[in-house]
Sequence to fold (334 residues):
Amino acid sequence: MRATPRNLGLTCLALLVLAGVLLLICLGLGTASIPLESVWDWLSGRPLEHTHLVILSRLRLPRLLLAALIGCSLSISGAVLQGVLRNPLAEPFILGVSGGAAGGAVLAMALNLAGMWARSGLAFLGAMVTVLLVLGLTRRQGRRDTATVVLTGVMINAFFTAFIMFIIATASENKTHAIMFWLYGDLSGAGLEQVEVLAPVVLACTLGLCLFARQLNLLAGGERTAAALGVNPERVKFILFLLVSLMVGFTVSLGGLVGFVGLMVPHLVRISLGHDHRLQLPAAALFGASFMMLADTAARMVISPSQLPVGVVTAALGAPFFVMLLARRGSQWW
Fold:
């Protein structure tokens, strides 16, 4: 599909409508089922039964909004990383960016640094350090082999996993329990405070990444071609990695480790809409929000009345998807 203003507008409108409809439906689904009419009455400001009012306003709405922001963040980050590295297997979780952010956040929890901003700040530093390590270790004679980038990211992710396990092994029982639930992407404690912190970061970084869609299109043809057309590849990549690190750092610090969203969603969007990043990036962000709302709803309902961490659901879907991509070596997807 060509990325004309009309196609872009229609695509974004359709995905916004989809996200709105799914939000309406998912608000009513859970251990305590709430009729769609009651959800609509609540959204319209009409009086509602107190129990339903508490469930919708204090539990499900903040959780679904946080899930949507996480999906938006991870999906557009995956699309950007796949575009910059020209590798269909690239995404924050696999490249170790999420692992680095988780390492920083777990360190903040172990050091008793109070507040979401301290945890988010260390998570951002962890994500940025990971990106710099991956890029620095894979630089050879002015070039980077994308397969080596992915493998290096996997190894660095393994290092941060070991670091997190060390923190867990040496922490008190209460801290261990809290860290383990957070690591699996548990959103049961989501509140509007987390949404208010994450929303401006995700929206600002998403807008910033979309502004570089044209440069991403040129980089897809090779760095030399992009440079010949007036793009400074190193500068563009640094800005993109900085924005991705900032967004992923805040996302992981508030939502835990949620893997494979940044792998699956960009591919599904690319298959449907084509390779033009001017269309692909906003579509991935919007569709990622819908995808995560569905994943979180499934996490709440699969073993109801108990709940699964949403990271378990995304991993169950993403692991087979990743194996399929490996088997095809990306040739039919890129």
User: Anything to note?
Assistant: The chain is about 75% helix and 0% strand. The domain at 5-328 is CATH 1.10.3470.10 (ABC transporter involved in vitamin B12 uptake, BtuC). The radius of gyration is 20 Å.
